[in-house]
């Protein structure tokens, strides 16, 4: 399963009033704010994007279901997976989406994309 369509639909519902676009990425789906990836879905996990510093802060007091994104086999700074109990409720999912949107609103596009 490349990504969970039900989780993607939940994201679409949360992002309906935002200027987001969707893009296939990482074998899943990414939701872009301009040219910056804000949040995404890989399999049944939410990809949360934040700064490396904020990511470390969140992981230091990580709730169940939040962990480093290790898509490449190594943890990626500022990229987190939220799964299971972290996103089961609408409030939980909203928390991580908002975290990602705050980052995306101030981030610059990757140099590769310019």
Describe the structure.
It is a single chain. By secondary structure, this protein is an alpha+beta fold. The chain has three helices and six strands, in the order αββββαββα. The protein has a six-stranded antiparallel beta sheet. The chain is globular, with a radius of gyration of 13 Å. The relative contact order is 0.18.
- Radius of gyration equals 13 Å
Task: State mean pLDDT (0 to 100 scale).
Answer: 91
Listing every helix as H and every strand as E from the N terminus to the C terminus, the arrangement reads: HEEEEHEEH
CATH class: Alpha Beta
Strand numbers in spatial order across the main sheet: 1-2-3-4-6-5
**Structure summary, number of beta strands:** 6
User: Approximately how much beta-strand content do the residues carry?
Assistant: 25-35%
Provide a brief overview of the structure:
By secondary structure, the protein is of the alpha+beta class. The protein has a single domain (5-109), classed as Aspartate Aminotransferase, domain 1.
Tags for this entry?
114 residues, alpha+beta, six-stranded antiparallel sheet
Give the SSE layout:
Blueprint: H1 5-15, E1 20-25, E2 28-33, E3 36-42, E4 45-49, H2 52-60, E5 66-68, E6 79-82, H3 90-106
Antiparallel strand pairs: 1-2, 2-3, 3-4, 4-6, 5-6
